[in-house]
User: Fold these one by one.
Assistant:
Number 1:
Amino acid sequence: MSNLPLPDAATVRPFTFNDALVARIGAGLSAYMLFVIYPAYGFLRGWWLGDFSSFSAEGMLVAVATSGAFGFFARWIILTYLRIDA
Amino acid sequence: MDTALATANDLLSDHYVTLKFVHVVFAAMWAWSTSVAYGNYLVPLFRDWQRAPHDPERIRLRNWAMERFDEGAKLEHIAFPMLLITGPLLMLAGGWTPDSGWFTMKLVLIVLVFLPIEIADFHLAHFGGNKERLREAGNSIAYEQAIHTHWWFLIITTPIVIVSITFTFYLAIVKPF
């Protein structure tokens, strides 16, 4: 414990966030899943097998539901870590 | 391409189980080696600091925890490159291709989720964002910025890691589709 880094009170600043920012992060993660990960999976399968069934209506529904659920989950987890009781 | 894959498969298939053993050991090391430090030291100390951000003792503990976490991430960051080596070997030895949906999904997660996260994590823990080095350089403004950036990184990647690592283990073990 004697080797702990010394605090520099002059430069230390509080960690700030707001709910709107966290909501945007959750939406961004959700969008990444829907518009990057899901198409990458579908096109890789399509390129290799010639099978683009990942982009069927059922596949898209699963992708939208999964990415939406993940966005809400991410927002909830992030806020759980960031919100501090007084 | 098919011939090259078949040749590689011929050369490596006898070693499939050994490669799998090495891969699983490093996967476990990569996935869980920082979880106790994160959940039981870093998170409580950061939350405590956020309650009184100018308390010198809390700042001291926050900095200590983050610097030790940079150091502790070494185990994870040794394991990840080993996974990048043993993974493709296992793919060739097992003859796995995007014919298997689980394999395709795992490949996509590695390239589009884990790789970017680990590149950022390497930078934050060991290179430009290494807190001990910034402290020794006397750059307290960059030090504070690095602490905030790293904390944001950890907070944002927490839900990603919870879901994607669990899902990757599920894909690899259950091979559901």
Note: Chain B is about 85% helix and 0% strand.
Number 2:
Amino acid sequence: MIEIRNVTKAFGGTRAVSDCSISLEGLTITGLIGPNGSGKTTLFNLITGLLKPDSGEIRFLGKRIDGRLPHEMARLGLIRTFQLSRVFPRMTVLENMLLAPQGQTGERLLSLWFRLPRIRNEESDNRERAFELLDLLGLMRLHDQFAENLSYGQQKLLELGRALMAKPRMILLDEPTAGINPTLIRTMIEMILKMRDRGQVFFIIEHNMDVVIEVCEKVFVLDHGEKIAEGRPEEIQRDPRVIEAYLGC
Amino acid sequence: MDLLLHLAVVVAIYSIFALSLNVEIGYTGLFNFGHVAFFAIGAYTSALLTLSGAPFAVGLLAGLAAAGVCGYLLSIPALKLQGDYFGIATLGFGEILRMVVSNEVWLTKGPMGLPGIPRPEILGFIFDTLPAYLALSACMALTTFAILAFVVLSPFGRALKAVRDDETAAEILGKNALRFKIKSFVIGSTFAGLAGVLWAHYTTFISPGDFTLTETILVLLIVVMGGKGTLPGPVLGAVALIFFQESVRFLRLPPEWTRLLGPLQQMVFGLLLVVLMVFRPEGIIRERGGRHGD
């Protein structure tokens, strides 16, 4: 689905991502691991249009997407979450969810005045779906709270729910279980697996190897911006280059 | 009684002015420090047209259009700037516009101002008495309130709030932040133009001195004190501030007292502002979960 070919991105003299090629063809949940500073988030930023690659190309469903603007990526069906959750703090949980669906008629200023019945229908459909997801995420009773009142873990769950509301082709999760308590990690994993069974495709940056082994079909390993290994999670764990990258030298 | 009616008219006009700014500041997070410029554009456009014989309706619509178009033209370069820099650009625009109005004497008569602006006439009825003008401006204020409420409570308004809270996250969710900000700015500017039109035809005399930074600050205070990002906030703020500013006039005091009271009032006002910002920074009305929450 995503095809990354020889992508390089440098900040000053440092190559954050160096001649990296990754293909996510036919995979449902793919992991991206690597030590801190190995270029994982930079790669996500390149895919989602927050950064432009210096060279190389990125294709999504066959179309070149590198260098496009972030809001175009969402339209193409690519949604991400952030390492430090970025919910909209002064909007309610439900509003956060309702914002995500793409191509809403009610977001066009002129349509507001002429297509009210259609907007009402869209809103009530979206609302129904939002409540279903909030229920699965255990956030139902918080739906009318400002998102800033949620705990950090709950915010990360909300971010996942918001991404799902957009019905994207692929969701990129940047460390979905970092910094949240074990109960919420369980909720997060179960949600990801449940959505995979419904056909949702994920690309996940994750540090917690237990989570990687449980959910990922295939894993790519980055170190100093280079891809050093790829394979099934169990194989990766035994790969000497990976062990070296993690234990340092 | 006349004083009360006069204050009510001023409150209605400033409510429109504040409601329009609230769309930008409260719902989109655009700190516009040149909002008075669009008030002035509306006022001058309508005044010049009606003085040269056009009917009020034409002046009104032209005033709205001129303010909206100028808002659009300013927003394209200014909204490329972020946060404080955007604020400074709008501040600059406000000052430049006032300079233009003061100096283009052939058009605006410069500092002399435009006297004798006709009272509005709609379908043969002339709004030349205080109660009539109050009815007109109250109607306009209610219409503005209804339109802006409809807009900010819609999915469009929800997207504005998302851009306000976190522009990058909104972009990642497929919202073209720049487009939403431009639209918000044009809406705000257009309704500021409406307030300006009503002001010009109420006072019947306008000059560049009416459109200084002080006006922008006053309307900013109204929005922030009333509660930005809420619907009733700006209206409540307008009532509170206008009445407070004029309150001295209600007390029939000997002249030597009022000489002291003037400055004293400003001090009390400043003190009240500090107290309010310390104990209730969100303003009189607090922003709460939207109606989407039920």
Note: The two ends of chain A are 35 Å apart (CA to CA).
